[in-house]
Write a structure and sequence with these properties.
Blueprint: H1 14-30, E1 57-58, E2 61-62, E3 68-71, E4 74-77, E5 83-85, H2 87-104, H3 110-126, H4 136-139
Antiparallel strand pairs: 1-2, 3-4, 4-5
Helix pairs in contact: 2-3
Length: 141
């Protein structure tokens, strides 16, 4: 899944967005930098998220329209409102906890296990959570 390297631009029509992307592309080229079209994608969030949009091009390559974007480790999902997908964080947390239990088995005390889970596993679950709008459905285990 491609990562999003362009800051999100939310309330623009496709023509304005293409114009802005083209201007950014020219400015970056003037300082010998370029946008990697293979690592870029587009996604629409809002009441019209499910309506087909015109394609945005970078370096004459169309950017794909995707249903979810990984941005700074947070998975943002195409929806009516800003929505984050926490299943990756939950999987990472459970994988870390299972790894600790698998290595330690019954050799460590409860205090050591709790400390390890708190210091090594919990950050994987809590990263970026303060910017994620949480609902009852997203917080279910």
């Amino acid at each position: 899944m491609p990562s999003c390297f362009i800051e999100p631009i939310w309330f623009l029509c496709e023509l304005e967005l293409q114009t802005i992307v083209s201007i950014c592309e020219l400015e970056l080229l003037s300082i010998d930098m370029a946008i990697n079209a293979k690592k870029s994608c587009t996604m629409r969030i809002g009441p019209r998220h499910d309506i087909k949009c015109a394609s945005i091009k970078i370096n004459n390559q169309e950017l794909p329209w995707v249903n979810e974007i990984r941005y700074l480790g947070i998975y943002i999902v195409r929806a009516n409102k800003l929505k984050c997908f926490l299943d990756h964080a939950k999987r990472s947390f459970h994988r870390s906890v299972n790894s600790i239990f698998g290595k330690l088995k019954r050799t460590a005390s409860e205090e050591v296990i709790v400390h390890l889970v708190h210091s090594k596993c919990l950050p994987a679950l809590l990263y970026g959570l303060e910017v994620s709008p949480l609902t009852k459905l997203t917080t279910e285990v």
